[in-house]
Amino acid sequence: MNKKSLFYLILIIVVAILFRLWHLDKPEGIWNDEYLTWKIANARFPREFFEALRSNCHAPLHYLYLKVWMMIFHDSDKFLRLSSVIPGVLGVITMYFVSLEYKNKEGVSTALTAAVLCAISSFLIYYSQEIRIYSLLFFITTLMLLFALKIFNNPSKKNFALYSLMCVLLILTHTIGFVFVLFSTAALMVFAVPKKKTGTFVFFSIVGVILLALPFIPFITSVLIKGGYFSQWWAPFNFSRIFFTLTDIFSPVLCDTFHVYNTFADAFYKDNIVNLGFFVFALIPTVIGILCFINGALNPKRMQGYLLSVILCTVFVVLMAAMAGKIVFVTKYLIELVPLVVLMTADGFVSFKSKGFKIAIATIFIVLNIFYFAVSEMSAVRLIREEGQRLPVVALSNLDLKKNDKIIFLYYAKEWYYKYVDFDNPDNEPYSEALGVTKYNYSSQFNGHYMWGKELHQKGKDEYRPIFASNENRKFDRMLNKNSFAPLKKGDKLFLVDLTSVSFFPKSIVQQIASNDDIYRTTPLLYLAMSYAKNFILEKAHRELEYVGHYNTGAWRIYVFKKA
User: Fold this and answer.
1) In terms of pTM, does the model score above 0.85?
2) Which of 349, 125, 328, 345 is nearest to 242 (CA)?
3) Considering just the CA atoms, what is the radius of gyration of the chain in Å?
């Protein structure tokens, strides 16, 4: 590496670090998935930790990494997010060397281009600030890709072994990562390994992966056969997600990551308004990215065949699984493909013959990405986690919460707020005594019969349809009286903390859906259950208490009632 290339690489790394540190501390706090990650990593090692892992759908490596991180650093939100910044930046650096390997150590321009694409990628920046598996997963994938390409150039036992190790680490990070590993390994056998080396490859790679992953096979198998984890009870499949995946990868507008629009058509034109911003900041960078990717795909190389086959096969399998309702087709579940896409895009850009054309599209692409990132309130670092659990805690503290008041939490249990509330403080008694109608216990609170996992997703729609269609629910009513309504004395308040993103159906719509076979079959059960719970509690509160008002913050709405 010459001094000029080293200077550019250091500059890119500095940009990557600064972009990922900007707005790192989120005032809204951690949200659902981040809380689960922190809770598991925070569990006492080893028994409670591995028990928590068994109850979760994700592989264990990131939780182990985060546990070690918290042993060394503080577990404040800022430091927890910093645990994702580090692998995010390391992934940018690794992509430089991946590109050099792809171009046989002669493609410095391709390497710098790939590093730039990763450094300014809003998608990668977003997950470099998220307390989740995806930043670490991106870094591991770049290492796996690096050793896969090294096998092309030098099919040695060392490269076979290191590739196998990265495959195992990837599987132990992402539960469905085995799909990517399977196609990557198969493609290497087809495109990279000479016939005389096939036996060596099989032994050191395939057998190596199996042996290293053997202790975790029972865990992975148990996760895959539990229908509750992958059943789309909260997000039905939509073909628009395919297009939003492209805008997420190439543009600064994170539609699929943050669910900005319901359909791709809505992104262009909704309520008689043309969305010029989406056209400029999402579509133009995406078209440039796709154009470069296609040009890279046209280069006749064995490595290019490997990359293309892995991308197409992985997308096809995930797409089929999403259409069958087994997983949700979202960009983050395809993050293993991002290094491959970036590599081909960078190679395609450098391969254009016209220098003027390259300068033009590079300028447009970089300016649009960085301008949106720096200015827009919807940029990757400013996107509010609207389900952040600090938001309702701050709101309740500003709503004059008293010791004898009652709180009903919808969707999340009361324990989910103890990162921001001292439950041992007597003044916080309303939190410790709060009632939670959550996604985990609503089945027992609606009718006394607890259902979860595979049973709920297979039978829940039939079990709760009569309840959704009915105006009466004596079991639910008795439970609400006992825990929240009856203990109230004159002047005491009742606070209903509602997560509006999962409880948006009014009572009449819930009943209409329950009466229509086709609509009911395709409507996520979670939305129906949480909407029903909210509507039932509000109707009861309006009958028996005095309505004071409500307060909105993020995706939360807090309804306030008072005992007259």
Assistant:
1) yes
2) 328
3) 26
